[in-house]
Specification:
319 residues; 6 strands; P-loop_NTPase; 14% strand; alpha+beta; ATP binding; ABC transporter domain-containing protein; ABC_transporter-like_ATP-bd
């Protein structure tokens, strides 16, 4: 009898211990889940408050989650600090080799989800001919004497005293093609085949001394109907840098000169359509897009992004 009582007591004790352990586990899980729900609810309330703002104010506010505390805070886009921009890019592109493509797809999906078509450009060139006049033979040899003589000769030719000894040289002859939007076009050719000349002609940066004939259009518009230098950029194989500027300063200067950033009107239309469709965007992508569309912040954010994907975020050295 005593052994039976002892067995029942031990069984009851083990059952109580198991029940207590289960209760402790359930309480712990419930506490953590409740904490997670509270954070989600708090973020949803902050986002709802932003959605109630007028369009101008809504484009200046965002939800940024702290990397250390994991707390979502409302931030003013025009007052993002260095650490906040660093945390934002760390969340979007933690590993450049793996996350860059994912991030770009997020940007693309957000715009296409509400039916906004991003403007694209199709470049066509028809019967393109480019010719130059150049010295041939010994006259083309690079020397100081030849250089001085050619200058004097050019002056006398302009006065119709001497006959022009330059020979016509055809660089491109009857070249036609199409550069489709949203596609990567590869241009291959042997050295001195006219690749650089073709690219300069398409970008509107061809040397005025060259004779150009044919037709180059951007979405059907001739080159004289707009400023092609604001639409296309040609990057030479010879880099030109200011030696006294750091890597960050050089990229920031370039971004400011080129007007880096998204169009503010496009983001306003995107926000309006998302509000009508009751769509909540990714908070990090939302802050990034608002930052690059905000005047005064676009160059800083774009510079940080380029430094991040190139692995140069810790570089403060000169070129």
């Amino acid at each position: 009898m005593e052994s039976a009582d002892i067995y029942r007591a031990s069984s009851s004790f083990r059952g109580s211990f198991r029940g207590g352990s289960s209760a402790w586990r359930n309480t712990t899980v419930e506490a953590f889940s409740r904490s997670s729900r509270e954070e989600d609810d708090e973020e949803a309330l902050k986002w709802a408050a932003i959605e109630k703002l007028p369009t101008y104010d809504r484009l200046r506010k965002g939800i940024l989650t702290s990397a250390s505390k994991g707390v979502a805070n409302e931030v003013d886009i025009e007052k993002l600090g260095v650490q906040e921009r660093k945390q934002l890019l760390e969340r979007l592109v933690k590993v450049a080799e793996e996350d860059t493509e994912k991030f770009l797809w997020k940007l693309k999906d957000r715009v296409e989800r509400v039916g906004i078509d991003v403007p694209t450009i199709e470049v066509r060139y028809d019967n393109l001919n480019i010719e130059a006049e150049a010295y041939v033979g010994s006259s083309a040899l690079p020397s100081f004497a030849k250089f001085t003589f050619n200058i004097i000769e050019g002056l006398l030719i302009s006065l119709n005293i001497l006959r022009n000894r330059k020979k016509p040289l055809t660089i491109l002859k009857d070249v036609s093609g199409i550069v489709k939007p949203s596609r990567l076009t590869l241009l291959l050719g042997p050295p001195s085949s006219g690749k650089t000349t073709l690219l300069l002609a398409l970008a509107g940066k061809l040397d005025p001394d060259l004779k150009l004939s044919g037709r180059v259009t951007y979405n059907g518009h001739e080159m004289n109907e707009f400023v092609p230098q604001r639409t296309a950029a040609y990057i030479s194989q010879h880099d030109l840098h200011i030696g006294e500027m750091t890597v960050r300063e050089t990229l920031a200067f370039s971004a400011r000169c080129q007007g880096a950033g998204y169009l503010h009107d496009m983001l306003a239309e995107l926000s309006r359509r998302e509000k009508e469709a009751n769509i909540k965007p990714d908070p990090d992508v939302d802050v990034f897009m608002k930052a690059v569309a905000s005047q005064g912040e676009e160059a800083n954010v774009i510079t940080d992004y380029v430094l991040k994907i190139l692995g140069l975020e810790v570089s403060q050295t000169l070129w």
